[in-house]
Amino acid sequence: MKALRILGLSNEEVLHVGDSYPNDVLGAKAAAIPVLWINRKHRRLNPTDIAPESVAHDLSGVLEYIE
User: Fold this and answer.
1) CA of 18: how far to CAs of 27, 28, 35, in Å?
2) Looking at domain 2-61, does it have CATH number 3.40.50.1000?
3) CB of 50 within 8 A of CB of 33?
């Protein structure tokens, strides 16, 4: 959150990209930051798991967010 303040950005203006469900998805969601989960192992989430906003199976999934 300090980095966002320094850059003058809000949570909605950034996207966290990561491949670790517990560290990246849950961490970003706890900070109210949208997350793209790189799910290379095609892990299935349980209905009770917190879902990321987006899922890709490799880094090419980031391309749809780049303007």
Assistant:
1) 10, 9, 8
2) yes
3) no
Provide φ and ψ at 5, rounded to 5°.
-65, -45
For the entire predicted model, the pTM comes to 0.88
pLDDT tens-place string over residues 29-55: 999 999 999 999 999 999 999 999 999
Tokens of 26: 């849950």
With a CB cutoff of 8 Å and minimum separation 6, the contacts of 12 are 34
The domain spans of the chain are 2-61
Neighbours of 36 (CB within 10 A): 23
